[in-house]
Amino acid sequence: MEVIDEVKAIFKAHLEQKNQRKTPERFAILEEIYTLTDHFDVEMLYSRMKRNNYHVSRATVYNTLDLLLESGLVVRHQFGNNVAHYEKAYGSKQHDHLICKRCTKVLEFCDPRIHQIQHMMGNILGFDVHQHSLTLYGDPQLSPQGNCMSCGLDTIVPLAQDIIPAEGEY
User: Fold this and answer.
1) pTM to 2 decimal places
2) Which of 57, 67, 85, 153 has the fewest CB atoms within 10 Å, i.e. is most exposed?
3) DSSP states of 52-119 as a string?
């Protein structure tokens, strides 16, 4: 069975359990998500659906994402800005993120030492740790012209933690 067939079956069972309708639009959104190889936000997904001639509303995209989150087929991230990012979850290995503070590109990485620390801290503190979330933010190496070596951008895109004043700075 292919991954898309497996996720459709999981989603169908979740919709039935929640007494929700199994609409073609919901399954089209699921299929679109599982063709993506990177993180996405609602606007990007909505635009892709429109470009591919699917007639869905933003509300349908939001509502379907909520159902996919509940079913464990999608994960939501807040990477320091006010826009939620999502990624497919089924069949994905645990990984962490590094966010470029210049261009906001999301880089994924996996280091087994982090899993070892998670396990060790669980033992020390008396927890059975099931998952973790680690997001690093950094400045990229720059070219001699001052451009990001990762994407080539020469401007800095502010992240939320850069524009929200610290306590006492109002």
Assistant:
1) 0.72
2) 57
3) TT----HHHHHHHHHHHHHHTSEEEEE-SSSSEEEEE-TTPPP-EEEEETTT--EEEE--HHHHHHHH
